[in-house]
Amino acid sequence: MKLRAPSEHTDRAGADQLGHLPLARDPWLLVMSVARMLMYANFMVYAACLPVLIPAWGMSATEAGSVSGAFMLGYAFSLVAFSWLAQHYGARRLFLISAALSAFSAVLFGLFARSYPSALALYALAAVTQGGTYGPAIMLFADRYAPQARGRAVGVLIASTSLGYAASLLLSGWLLAHGGYEFAFVVSGWLVAVGAVLAYATLRSTPNVVHPHSAGTSRLRAIFAHANARRLIIGYTGHSWELLGMWSWFPAFIAASLALSATSAVQAAAGGAYLAAGLHLCGALAASWMGSLSDRFGRRVLLLALSASSALLSLTIGWLIGWPFAVLLALTFVYGFTALGDSPVLSTALTEAVAPYALGTALAARSLLGFSAGAIAPLVFGAVLDATNPAGVLPTTWGWAFVTLGLGGLVAAWYAYRLEEGTPLRS
Questions:
Q1: Are the CB atoms for 82 and 136 separated by under 8 Å?
Q2: Alpha carbon distances (Å) from 162 to 43, 167, 235, 344, 416
Q3: For residues 280 and 385, is the Cβ–Cβ distance under 8 A?
């Protein structure tokens, strides 16, 4: 498929149809959210099936981890590439290309991933095709909704992603128990295809907008010349360090806590997996609420409150591993709520701090920095965990490892504090 940028006249005519639609009378928002949730049905299927896959495929722990690592690297590349292309050729077009390719690759993975080499290649392919359903989606929402309702709309968008993660974990676990990992792979792949078809049907009448800009105008300069844009991108990087590191290690932390209370290893692992789904559900609730609240109270105050609260929990929760599990459970849900709650606010604020023609570049730069930090954070966490615990035994000292995540939260809080809400929102 050859990409062709629409004419400037078509772009502006399309843009004039958007930007002031009320959420209450716009079923587009609900249907797009359902479509995106389905398109993430395969996102956690490998993680959910991993305890079965390791013995079935004879994988070492390093091999098992390399599949997840290849997926995250592919997804990071995809986020950057699709966001950058969307500003040149239109968010709608790139979203639909990504949806079609991700459906095809998800079905391929479901049908043919039956060994370590095939899973490594096909899961990476699935990741490379999937990123266009995120960055271009934010651009679609920024064009469709005016600033006074945009926080709520982007909150629903981020919530649909978290619901997709949670549903992927829960559904994959159920399918695994009732038909094996092959059944889980196949069904999750076809659900992605259903989501892509639903997205295509929803976007058929949505204009493909390409925002014009003056020749010779640097998009990077338009982004980094604006102090708020710089602060939001750096804050998102700290947020990603904390959030992705927490998502990677928190199930193991809960499993270790349960094991200390004489729970069996199998039950402890299962408890950690189900609690991971609970974290994503809390994140979905936080995303939908905080995006809407930021429309009412402002982006800065919500970002500061959420990032500071999440940082405080990162700095302290690791030291509480021996506390009663009921207390840890309550703190877990607060942690999940605050760690993801600032995500839609960060995304909405960036759409207001950057000129529309440079938004794709801003999202690409943000994804590159954020996911690079998110890929490094779990490694640093693991290294600190190894350094603070005896080798070959269940870790019991988790505080210092979680402190490393708290540093990212502090970075996010500091740059939220430095935001200037009184300045013009766009360059």
A1: yes
A2: 11, 8, 20, 11, 23
A3: no
Each residue's pLDDT tens digit, 35-68: 999 999 998 888 778 768 878 898 775 677 678 7
Identify the burial level of 423 via C-beta atoms within 10 angstroms of its C-beta, where 0-12 means exposed, 13-18 middle and 19 or more buried.
exposed
Least confident interval from 92-106, 168-182, 275-289, 406-420: 275-289
SS (H, E, C) 116-185: HHHHHHHHHHHHHHHHHHCHHHHHHHHHHCCHHHHHHHHHHHHHHHHHHHHHHHHHHHHHHHHHHHHHHH
Task: Using alpha carbons, select from 178, 164, 187 the residue that is nearest to residue 52.
Answer: 178
Phi, psi of 75 (to 5 degrees): -70, -40
CA distances from 106 to 44, 167, 173, 184, 187 (A): 12, 16, 18, 12, 10
Q: pLDDT of 254-307, one tens digit each?
A: 777 777 765 555 455 555 556 767 777 887 788 878 888 888 888 899 999 999
Q: What is the pTM of this model?
A: 0.75
